[in-house]
Design goal:
With 170 residues, this protein is α+β, with helices and mostly antiparallel strands. The chain has five helices and five strands; from the N terminus they run H-E-E-H-E-E-H-H-E-H. The strands form two sheets. It has a three-stranded antiparallel sheet. Strands 3-4 form a two-stranded antiparallel sheet.
Length: 170
């Protein structure tokens, strides 16, 4: 515990000081007990909320799977658009790019040399030298492949429910 410096005193002896230290300790212990009780109550409330929310979260997971399967099966209904607006939200597909790097140190060193050689130094983080995947992801797939890294480009399903519309319905 930190030392506390206080100016002026009403104490007359070291026994008085000792009694004050005892009382401070008792007060601090009382505060700690109150805070521990509060922490326990918060923990119990969180656990109760988690248990009450579980059926809803499980239902959301099931509904998400159903929506995704339906949308993937009828992807042609989206046409050239990648998003469909519905009464209570929107859904669709977004392009997702993932950069893949080898684990071997010599292959990573080669990729770092290639990044520097092709003027893509914004993709090299130092120290120690390593590849910044987020920066590299911004380049076209052909450029990523050129330096020796791998790339996966996928259309990933997403959805978003309309809070305002649902609030207006309730």
């Amino acid at each position: 515990m930190a030392r506390v410096r206080i100016e002026g005193t009403a104490l007359r002896s070291w026994d008085d000081v000792n009694l004050n230290l005892k009382e401070i300790g008792e007060c601090e212990l009382a505060v700690e007990a109150i805070e521990a009780e509060l922490t326990e109550m918060i923990h119990d409330l969180k656990l109760d909320a988690e248990m009450r929310a579980k059926p809803h979260k499980d239902r959301v997971k099931k509904l998400e799977v159903e929506i995704k399967e339906f949308t993937e099966a009828r992807r042609d209904d989206l046409g050239k658009k990648k998003t469909m607006l519905l009464n209570f939200g929107k859904l669709g597909f977004r392009k997702s790019t993932k950069v893949k790097l080898p684990r071997a140190a010599n292959r990573l060193a080669e990729i770092i040399r290639n990044l520097k050689a092709f003027g893509m130094t914004d993709c090299v983080v130092q120290p120690p030298e390593k590849v910044d995947k987020e920066a590299l992801k911004k380049y076209p797939p052909a450029e990523i492949l050129k330096v020796g890294a791998g790339v996966d480009v996928d259309d990933v399903f997403w959805y978003e429910w309309d809070r305002e519309r649902l609030r207006d319905q309730g």
